[in-house]
Design a protein that fits this description.
single chain, alpha+beta, 7 helices, binds uracil
Length: about 170
């Protein structure tokens, strides 16, 4: 698994499939545990991520890490974090459909936007949309709802996962 992920990372780092390759500083491939049962998927890297080559860094990333920690999750221990497009769209604009189409192959399946907190199952994989940390920084009144989503995630993990919480005190 590690090996396959490393090969994919190497391939992705060389990617020139769309025009975002020309303006990126770094490909933001993804980070975390490669055997994770829980994967967080963002839309695409921002400026800090582009400069550092890591997803969700800076203030938004720090807030995300706090929310994760509240439900015994962390990128070091038991989750994986990736983006739909791996290179920063200039000025943080939305990725164009053709950019997403070029990049989506690096992610195993496409996410559809849903109501936050609503679970859905696609081809045997469970998904739930939640708040983007940058949106929470702009609209702090949504923070309690975001925390509810994390608690719902914790319940789902307890229900269906086999080793995500191994070694953590519950
Ligand atoms: N927003 C995203 O969607 N992904 C990141 O990695 C950072 C900000």
């Amino acid at each position: 698994m590690e090996n396959r992920m490393e090969q994919l990372r190497e391939e992705c780092l060389q990617c020139q499939k769309c025009p975002l390759a020309a303006t990126r500083h770094h490909v933001v491939f993804g980070t975390g545990k490669t055997d994770a049962e829980v994967v967080f998927v963002g839309e695409g890297p921002g400026e800090n991520e582009d400069l550092q080559g890591e997803p969700f860094v800076g203030r938004g990333g720090a807030l995300l890490d706090k929310y994760l920690e509240a439900v015994d999750l962390s990128r070091e221990r038991n989750i994986y974090i990736a983006n739909i497009v791996k290179c920063r769209p200039p000025q943080n604009r939305d990725p164009k459909p053709e950019e997403t189409a070029c990049c989506i192959g690096y992610l195993s399946r496409q996410l559809v936007t849903r109501q936050h907190g609503e679970w859905f199952n696609k081809d045997g994989v469970w998904y739930m949309g939640t708040f983007h940390p940058a949106a929470l920084l702009r609209n702090p009144h949504n923070k309690p709802d975001a925390f509810e989503d994390m608690l719902a995630l914790q319940s789902k993990i307890r229900e269906i996962c086999t080793h995500t919480y191994d070694g953590t005190e519950l």
